[in-house]
User: Which sequence fits this backbone?
């Protein structure tokens, strides 16, 4: 049964309004939330979110989050486990629609159009806002057919030659072509973990998305495969907008231009990555980055 999604239309502001809320964690330590620290706006936003709340049944997971995601930038979302960063990123292409108990409210816009408007085709949305998951999930198909799948579904190739050009180009952009060019008929599941994740990235970019969401894409990979994915992220930024959820602060520092710190469902701080990691403005951000909790 399709989940009911509630969307409200608040006023679009550049700065988060001031507020004071006492928040209690599971460890019975309180913190006072007085609004997001830093500038939530991006100079050239691809996606804009305002006053986003997310509920799973009666439990609220995201509280009044407002954040821009800039064109051709990598924004990293960090924070301790259960802080809401993965829940938030799943709102950006309506993956939370697949969860029956989930309700989303607020404003989420792509190229200045609400992604929750009644006429929005969710399949088309997920082509424009692709997602790479924590665990590589190649289809039980050949390497070639994994990449070609979305192209065929969306009718992006008019003939076999054009389809082949898209597949080869996507594998090249994902840095995988040289490793698989002689085994395109092999099952995608026969590749190594790092190769499978790059195959999933190739599958995502084959449909020419505007935004790529990455939910801890390197958590199941070894250091060498992780380094290759990070290099790829930096290369992809030239053509795509990327939002990445990561538990690795070192990774966030390496790959992103802006960083957003989440805590217990609140967006506590957002800013240039260099500033957030070297001179955080909020005590909670500093405590997390310096390892005092998390």
Assistant:
């Amino acid at each position: 049964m399709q989940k009911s999604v509630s969307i409200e239309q608040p006023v679009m502001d550049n700065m988060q309004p001031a507020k004071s809320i006492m928040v209690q964690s599971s460890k019975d330590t309180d913190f006072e939330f007085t609004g997001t620290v830093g500038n939530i706006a991006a100079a050239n936003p691809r996606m804009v979110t305002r006053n986003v709340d997310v509920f799973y049944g009666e439990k609220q997971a995201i509280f009044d989050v407002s954040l821009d995601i800039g064109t051709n930038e990598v924004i990293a979302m960090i924070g301790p486990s259960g802080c809401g960063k993965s829940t938030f990123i799943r709102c950006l292409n309506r993956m939370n629609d697949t969860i029956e108990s989930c309700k989303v409210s607020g404003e989420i816009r792509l190229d200045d159009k609400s992604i929750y408007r009644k006429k929005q085709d969710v399949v088309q949305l997920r082509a424009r806002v692709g997602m790479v998951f924590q665990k590589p999930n190649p289809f039980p198909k050949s390497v070639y057919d994994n990449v070609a799948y979305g192209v065929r579904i969306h009718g992006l190739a008019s003939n076999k030659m054009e389809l082949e050009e898209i597949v080869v180009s996507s594998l090249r952009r994902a840095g995988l072509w040289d490793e698989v060019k002689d085994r395109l008929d092999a099952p995608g599941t026969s590749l190594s973990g790092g190769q499978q994740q790059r195959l999933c990235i190739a599958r995502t970019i084959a449909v020419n998305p505007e935004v790529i969401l990455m939910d801890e894409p390197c958590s199941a990979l070894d250091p060498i495969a992780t380094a290759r994915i990070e290099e790829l992220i930096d290369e992809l930024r030239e053509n795509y907008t990327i939002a990445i959820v990561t538990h690795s602060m070192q990774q966030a520092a390496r790959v992103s231009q802006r960083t957003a710190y989440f805590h217990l469902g609140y967006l506590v701080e957002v800013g240039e990555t260099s500033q957030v990691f070297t001179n955080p403005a909020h005590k909670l951000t500093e405590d997390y980055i310096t390892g005092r909790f998390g």
